[in-house]
Specification:
Elements: H1 3-16, E1 20-21, E2 34-38, E3 41-50, H2 56-69, E4 72-80, E5 83-84, E6 89-93, E7 96-99, H3 101-109, E8 116-119, E9 122-127, H4 129-138, H5 143-150, H6 154-161, E10 166-167, H7 168-178, E11 183-184, H8 197-200, H9 211-218, E12 222-225, E13 233-236, E14 241-246, H10 250-267, E15 271-275, E16 287-291, H11 292-296, H12 301-311
Parallel strand pairs: 3-4, 4-7, 6-8, 14-15, 15-16
Antiparallel strand pairs: 1-2, 2-3, 4-5, 6-7, 8-9, 9-10, 9-11, 12-13, 13-14
Helix pairs in contact: 1-3, 5-6
């Protein structure tokens, strides 16, 4: 299956599951390929045939964007150097969840969530740690008894009760002994933020390589440069985040404006393309097209925010 086929399969699964999805991104070397939203769940999805091609740089930027947009990052693939991605298993690379389209379809369309996750050392399952501890204490079962049943140490049982995942065989032995469903499904969209966006965010006297972004810093925005996205930066104040694109080539401007507009529509974040001249550029429903002269003539971030909101249509 080609990568485009893989992307279209992912988009079809999301659409069938009721997600509002973005068009396929035509820009290469970006850190995500599809944006999807269903209710309050926003997904940023990267899709690769071989997930080993997903670099740490891509992962870091995807996590920064996910933090800023309050989204969940996800990597969809077919295989790794270890072999084919098996159905029903959630893998991970640089703390980004990974699964196959088959697993995604089972989860979203068949209501069959994954129960197994891969981690160093093998395959594991998630236990209901509170239920395990409660049942053990209520029925007076010792740590030693459970350790003998599961074939692990007493310390390992304590770690299970603190939330550590369990090897599949050990978990099944415990579940059979207790006669309770202590193995829990995995939510691949449950992302634990590393809160690292602050490491990349610039504000105040910090400088970038862009005169325009530096002006945004001077009038009070904080700026997070983006190197692997369909926009060059996230510009924010205490009220909103603006997807900010910069370009001089009209063809690229139009392409970026369309992509930014699609992402803005789905994410609910306003976007702006800052250009030398708006001549010949169509109006994009969800993206404001603003000239560099207009930006340079603004010395109050509220004025620019109002301008962007007036020229876009994000609710």
């Amino acid at each position: 299956m080609t990568r485009d086929d893989l992307i279209n399969t992912t988009r079809a699964i999301l659409a069938k599951a009721g997600f509002d999805i973005s068009a396929m991104l035509t820009l290469r070397s970006v850190c995500f390929d599809v944006v999807g939203r269903r209710d309050d769940k926003l997904l940023l999805i990267k899709i690769l045939s071989n997930v080993d091609a997903f670099s740490r740089e891509n992962a870091e930027e995807l996590k920064v964007l996910a933090d800023a947009l309050r989204a969940s990052p996800l990597l969809i693939g077919e295989r790794s150097s270890s072999g084919t991605l098996e159905p029903g298993i959630v893998y991970s690379r640089f703390n980004i969840p990974i699964m196959s389209n088959e697993t995604l379809a089972d989860h979203l369309l068949e209501d069959v969530p994954p129960f197994i996750f891969a981690a160093p050392g093998g395959l594991y399952v998630k236990l209901d740690s509170e239920l395990l501890r409660e049942v053990r204490e209520v029925h007076g079962i010792s740590l030693g008894t459970l350790a003998e049943v599961a074939g692990v140490s007493r310390r390992t049982i304590q770690m299970y009760e603190s939330g550590m995942g369990a090897m599949i065989d050990a978990a099944m032995r415990l579940e059979e002994f207790l006669d309770l469903p202590i193995i829990e499904p995995i939510n691949p969209f449950e992302y634990k933020s590393e809160n690292r966006s602050g490491e990349y965010e610039l504000s105040g006297d910090k400088r970038t390589d862009s005169i325009i972004l530096n002006h945004l810093l001077d009038i009070g925005y904080s700026v997070t440069p983006v190197t692997k996205g369909p926009f060059e930066a996230l510009s924010r104040d205490n009220k909103m985040i603006i997807l900010t694109s910069l370009d001089n080539e009209k063809e690229k401007v139009a392409q970026k404006a369309l992509i930014a507009s699609d992402i803005s529509r789905i994410s609910g974040r306003p976007s702006v393309v800052i250009v030398d001249s708006t001549r010949g550029l169509d109006k994009y429903r969800f993206t404001a097209v603003v000239t560099k002269d207009e930006v340079n003539g603004i010395d109050d971030k509220g004025e620019l925010t109002d301008l962007v909101m007036n020229r876009s249509n994000v609710e």
